[in-house]
Amino acid sequence: MAAPAAKNTLSNSGAKKVENSVKPAIPSANTSSRSSAPARLNPNSGHKQTRTTDGGTLEDRGNHSIKYRADGTPEFMKTGSKTVQYRKDGTIAQMTQGKTVTTFNTDGSHKVQNPTKSYTQKNAQVNGQNVVQRTYSSNNRTVVRNYNTYYRSGYSYHSYVPFVAYDPWFYGYCLHPWHPFSYTWAWAYDPWYSNYGYYYRPYSTYYGPSYWLTDYLIADSIRSNAQAANAAANRAEQAVHQVPQITNDMKDQIREQVEEVIRAHEKKEAVNVAETLRDAGRIFVVSEDIDVLVEGTEQQCSLTAGDLIKNREKVGDSDQFVKMIVVASKKGSCPAKTKIAISLVDLQEMQNAFAERLEEGMDKLQAERPDEKAK
Q1: Could you tell me how far CA 166 lies from the centroid of its own chain?
Q2: Full domain range(s) for residue 330
Q3: How far is it, in rounded angstroms, from Cα 157 to Cα 180?
Q4: Contact, 31 vs 92, CB < 8 A?
Q5: Out of 20, 298, 304, 320, which residue is the most buried by the measure of CB atoms under 10 Å away?
Q6: What whole-number distance in Å separates Cα of residue 83 and Cα of residue 47?
Q7: How many domains does the chain have?
Q8: Quick one: angle between helices 344-368 and 209-226, nearest 10?
Q9: Long-range contacts made by residues 187-190, C-beta under 8 angstroms, separation at least 24?
Q10: Would you say residue 114 lies in a domain?
Q11: Is residue 338 part of a domain?
Q12: CA distances from 243 to 198, 202, 238, 315 (A)
């Protein structure tokens, strides 16, 4: 299934190789500090209202609640694991979802922080084009990434634009087959991998760079969350599951996407995730912890980095949420076969992370040339 690249491209001609980091995450498709707050308190709304000790009012609306100040302006709204705090003028001051905290500044920029990353986002101009720019800070490294903005039904989305420029021969190399060989990854004896052998195992034979890059991408996604995961629970799972949940068929589907993104990268094109969902069955690699709605209920379950989900039906032009199914998951995540709904913006961020992590894998591939070592 081909993944058409977005038509809006950002020229980075003449770009040199730069060091990069991983992953973005924006709270919602059209969230900004100026997003509309709930209306002022209506004493006759019909919802259960409770006075608070500070003179405000807490209103219970079933699937969410709103806290109002004494003057009737909304102070915060809580829905599941997400809490949105408002200023008195109705603009958003802060959003907390799980372990991710987003602080919105009055100048339109915002800062995102969670245990694995921190970045500041603002609007910028690059080569005369308007872009969304994120400055990441992690492990004493600062990395700047640019994103194109595209629109669907009045909502805005941000798709990652490659900045790294490889020599043309390297793109050809990435898509050219290898003479098959076995390969042992440096992490093969690391504790994180021994805990997740029940869930994922690398290819036994590598027939080309896209096989190697697929394993790099999946393994790096799982490893990024391994420190936060319940190691004991996963070791117990390892003892009872001898066949990995991520099958070679699933990996082959991801490998096809790896090759698609490499082709888009060579053209310096951003991948518009909505275009990749014109048909059902596209697999997404979850890039960070996220709470999702279980279909047919008001309950949520959690996905963690390295889980796999796929869309169950094609996405229409006005759809903002996508019907998905969990195809493989780790201990503590939403169980496999769970039907969920997830926002299109979260899927775009997973696609961005996929492209960014793949770019890092290409860096490593170029430096290591495992096929040369296998000769």
Answers
A1: 24
A2: 168-373
A3: 40
A4: yes
A5: 304
A6: 19
A7: 1
A8: 120
A9: 187/219, 187/223, 190/223
A10: no
A11: yes
A12: 6, 12, 9, 33
Question: Residues 13-31: pLDDT tens digits?
Answer: 223 333 332 222 333 433 5
- On whether the CB atoms of residues 175 and 209 are closer than 8 A, the answer is yes
Show the tokens assigned to 303. Answer: 């996905």
Q: How many other C-beta atoms are found inside a 10 Å radius of the C-beta of residue 165?
A: 17
CA distance 213 to 365: 8
Q: What phi and psi values does residue 300 have, to the nearest 5 degrees?
A: -120, 155
Q: What is the pLDDT of residues 300-331, one digit of tens each?
A: 899 999 999 999 999 988 889 999 999 999 98
262: nearest Cα among 146, 362, 126: 362
Residue in the structure block whose two tokens are 């993944």: 3
pLDDT at position 236 is: 53
Query: What are 159's strand-pairing partners?
Result: 148
Sign of the torsion formed by the C-alpha atoms of 161, 164, 167 and 172: negative
Confidence (pLDDT) at 234 = 55
Q: Which residues touch 278 (CB under 8 Å, ≥6 apart)? A: 314, 315
Angle at 293 between CA 317 and CA 100, to 5 degrees: 95
176 domain residue, yes or no: yes
Q: Specify if 15 maps to a domain.
A: no
Residue length of the chain: 375
| Six-digit token string for 40 | 């002022």
pTM of the model: 0.80
